Structure to design on (322 residues):
DNA sequence: CGCTTTTAGTTGTAGCGTCAAGTAACCCGC
DNA sequence: GCGGGTTACTTGACGCTACAACTAAAAGCG
């Protein structure tokens, strides 16, 4: 217990709380979206990112970085969303290796219909318990952690959700 | 975009960063543990909780709340860990519905061998980028969020990891 | 130009988690 | 003391993700 670099009690306590949030939050978000829209949070987020792109279209690679996911995962997810009619795929004319994913009219409707309920869930589970200072602190701290988790910071250029 | 209760830009920014951390952190922790010990973070955490319990033994239900998991999930995980010789299961004498899970000698060794590397990973990915004030802020904010995610707060009575 | 390397994406498989259903034991009231 | 409800757990099936292998096209490079 006295390794060179153990954690202080304060660090440990904060760490465990962070881990708890990391484990519980995805389930909370997923179950609201599943119940109300039959979407996973990742599916919703993917649709949301597309909905904000110019022409509601993005290359697979761009979309995978916007959603912090691997290309393989994205490919599976887009395949599912395509089956349900929310997105379409088309080969990119400029680079024939590339694929453009774009939101269909139905997909756009889905996002519009789903967003308010999701925002409410985000408020209920996180935002509404935080005051202005908390939000600033959260932003600062998550920024620092992200600089380690994703040093290249090629994350989520996008803005909204 | 002007729904009754949309998010402010500051809230949105902090929220997206939190979501990014929530998505990236599990992968980071899992890959270190997988590489160095062939354990998932959840498996490690389960072993760690057992290692700190009196007699290194806990009832399944107690362990499931200590790890914030469903009983079904825990049951599967304990089954795997049992096959690998890290834990044992025995019916509880006082309540014959209940099962006691306990760490074997091999499981204890595994925890002892794995902990330092894991702590280092925790430091590298999170703790070492935060100063004392950050840690206090993180603890406070995660506490507030947890009060919503798990209102009954029957979470993680345990302390260390 | 040809040849290798890199980039873009897809697909199959295996593993983990969730959900629903099932079993068994305890507990409470009458 | 026995029937209904609850608690404690297990099991099986299904869905999603990671990983690895594969195809195809573009980019270097000599």
């Amino acid at each position: 217990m006295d390794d060179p670099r153990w954690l202080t009690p304060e660090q440990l306590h904060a760490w465990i709380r962070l881990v708890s949030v990391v484990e519980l939050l995805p389930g909370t978000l997923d179950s609201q979206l599943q119940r109300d829209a039959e979407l996973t949070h990742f599916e919703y987020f993917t649709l949301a990112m597309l909905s904000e792109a110019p022409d509601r279209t993005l290359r697979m690679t761009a979309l995978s970085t916007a959603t912090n996911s691997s290309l393989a995962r994205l490919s599976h997810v887009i395949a599912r969303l395509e089956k349900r009619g929310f997105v379409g795929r088309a080969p990119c004319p400029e680079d024939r290796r590339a694929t453009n994913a774009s939101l269909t009219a139905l997909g756009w409707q889905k996002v519009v219909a789903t967003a308010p309920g999701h925002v409410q869930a985000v408020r209920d589970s996180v935002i509404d318990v935080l005051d202005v200072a908390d939000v600033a602190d959260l932003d600062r701290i998550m920024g620092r952690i992200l600089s380690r988790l994703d040093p290249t910071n090629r994350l989520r250029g996008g803005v909204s959700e």
About this structure: The first strand of chain A starts at residue 57 and ends at 59. Chain A touches chain B through 59 residues (CB under 8 Å). Helices of chain A lie at 9-37, 41-52, 60-66, 71-83, 105-125, 132-149.
